[in-house]
Amino acid sequence: MFHYPFMQRALIAGILLAGLFAYLGVFVVMRRMAFFSDGIAHASLAGVAAGVLLSVNPLITALAASVLFAVVMFFLERKTHLSSDAAVGLIFTVGMALGVLLISLKRGYQPELIGFLFGNILMIKSWDLWLIGIVSVFISGSLFLFRREITLMSLDPEMAYLSGIRTGFFQLALYIILAISVILGIKILGIVLVSALLVIPVSISKLISSSFQKLVIRSVVFAEVIMIAGILLSYLFDLPTGAIIVLTGAVLFFTVFVLRRS
Fold it and tell me: Where does 145-232 show beta strands of DSSP type E?
């Protein structure tokens, strides 16, 4: 199956994004930001629809929309009395509504839009792969460079502030990084399922990890196993790739949970 270029691109993109999502997922779970990632994914429908309507690569417009929404969420939390989940819920619904409105302006069946809604890693083009690769390397490098600041901010925001860390800056940076990563993941899992890849590998790792370092390493390992197994199973049985990746992760989670309890 790996003689086919589309399978080669799918596997490379999957491996890159699985590692990135696993590492980011640690901070998402620690800071309880799963709803944030889900909100960004759904709000990005406006960006995807704008790309389809303007005949521009929807991945580019979705990236731009996601960064904008992330910045707006950050300032809503800082400048108003809205709670984090209320700000996410507001952006979630506004983005979805705007996306539906823009979709209604484009007549006819839009297969590319359906691909973004439900994901199709087998349809990744060479240009998409280059974009995913460059952005993944840049984000991973940034996370590694500022790992101390982001980790301390996630574990204890007050201690981070007292230590002289610019918590506001790093929180905004984390929001933007997470938003960009979610959009890249949409090509694989779609808007509906993308946040699962942030949560499931880390949740599995938390069952058997006793330290932060082990949590990160095992999360990456589980994410890669889930991604590769999901891609292979979806190809062999001709099933939706995004759904199979998520269900593979769910099966692995409950397997580890049962074995841990026995």
Answer: none
Give the CB-side neighbour count of residue 173, counting CA atoms within 13 A.
Answer: 17
Instruction: Work out the pLDDT band at 109, boundaries 50, 70, 90.
Output: low
Q: What is the pTM of this model?
A: 0.86
User: Residue 219: CA atoms inside 13 Å, Cβ hemisphere, count?
Assistant: 28
Q: How far apart, in whole angstroms, are the C-alpha atoms of residue 179 and residue 39? A: 10
Q: Which residues contact 118 (CB under 8 A, 6 or more apart)?
A: 190, 191, 192, 193, 240, 242, 243
Report pLDDT digits (tens) over 211-241: 888 999 999 999 999 999 998 998 899 888 8
Separation of alpha carbons 56 and 69, rounded Å: 20
Helices 45-54 + 84-104 axis angle, to 10: 20
Q: What Rg, from alpha-carbon coordinates, does the chain have?
A: 18
Give CA–CA dist 149/36, Å, rounded. 20
Residue position matching structure tokens 């799918």 = 10
Q: How many CA atoms lie within 13 A of 5 on its CB side?
A: 4
Cβ(121)–Cβ(15) below 8 Å: no
SS (H, E, C) 38-98: HHHHHHCHHHHHHHHHHCCCHHHHHHHHHHHHHHHHHHHHHHCCCCHHHHHHHHHHHHHHH
Structural domains in the chain, sorted by start? 5-193 (1.10.3470.10)
User: Angle of helix 58-79 relative to helix 34-43, nearest 10 degrees?
Assistant: 130
- Tell me how far apart the alpha carbons of residues 178 and 55 are, in angstroms, rounded to a whole number: 26
DSSP string, 176-195: HHHHHHHHHHHHHHHHHHTT
Query: At which residue do the structure tokens 């101390």 appear?
Result: 148
